[in-house]
Ferrochelatase
Amino acid sequence: MSQQKVGVLMVNLGTPEAPTPQAVKRYLAQFLSDKRVVDTPRWLWWPLLNGVILPFRSPRVAKLYQSIWTVDGSPLLAFSRRQECALSARLGDDIPVALGMSYGSPSLPSALDSLLSQGVTQLVVLPLYPQYSCSTTGAVWDGLADALRTRRQLPGIRFIRDYATHPVYIDALKQRVEASFARHGVPDRLVISFHGIPVRYATEGDDYPLRCQATAQALIAALGLAPEQVQMTFQSRFGREPWLTPYTDETLKGLPAQGIKHIQVICPGFAADCLETLEEIQEQNREIFLHAGGERFAYIPALNDDARHIDVFEALIRDE
């Protein structure tokens, strides 16, 4: 029997290619057309998406991207590329690594083609979402199936569903929080903010809120914090239907009235800093908290390309 060759496909959400209305419109059109993300019937959703949301939302979102854009481009893509390079160096030449995005570039199919062209016969798929959701990890599964649909020869596949409580991941988060506490002091409240999803998705079977809760509980236990020192919230809601609560922005607005004047915020669901952390949390929600009477606010950066984060990826790849 011929020897099997393992390859790693890392997948994140994606990002516009430039902080311009045109590029953002292309990205949002692809992202918001995925039924895993928005499952509204097409006859209702398409006129709203193309006639209202894309024309009006794209210029506004482009301005937000402009506020966080770097010399290396999109922070999410820059950090993801560094993660790809660091993991590749860690695993060595015998295990190729490729980065793909569910939306935008580099695409998931192009990353898959790169690996298969190198003779990969056993594919390890690592969605960069620590907590499973049908709207993120599920979309990676769909994208992989679509990319393989016309191939005669299929690789063996190990799909990492999530790593919400993996001990190496929790330890990396713990050290991130402790470093922030050492720098800024212990806050009155540590806010653990996750990206939200519609409540309906959870009632229909998505166990995402339970996976978020599992991460939060494991991190709190590792830090040895009392329940009153920590609060778990959900951010980035979109549309009119109810999303998971409590909402991060509303929570932060109400904390100063409770005597909570110093907070630090960590977003464990993001493998790389991006618009939702650097602009929404570090800028918008910081302003909300301070305007409401808060005095000290610190955002705890994502694990990004920190060596401990690469430890997490390596542990996941090498786990049998």
Notes: Strands lie at 6-15, 97-104, 122-127, 156-159, 189-195, 230-235, 262-266, 296-300. The first strand starts at residue 6 and ends at 15. The two ends are 21 Å apart (CA to CA).
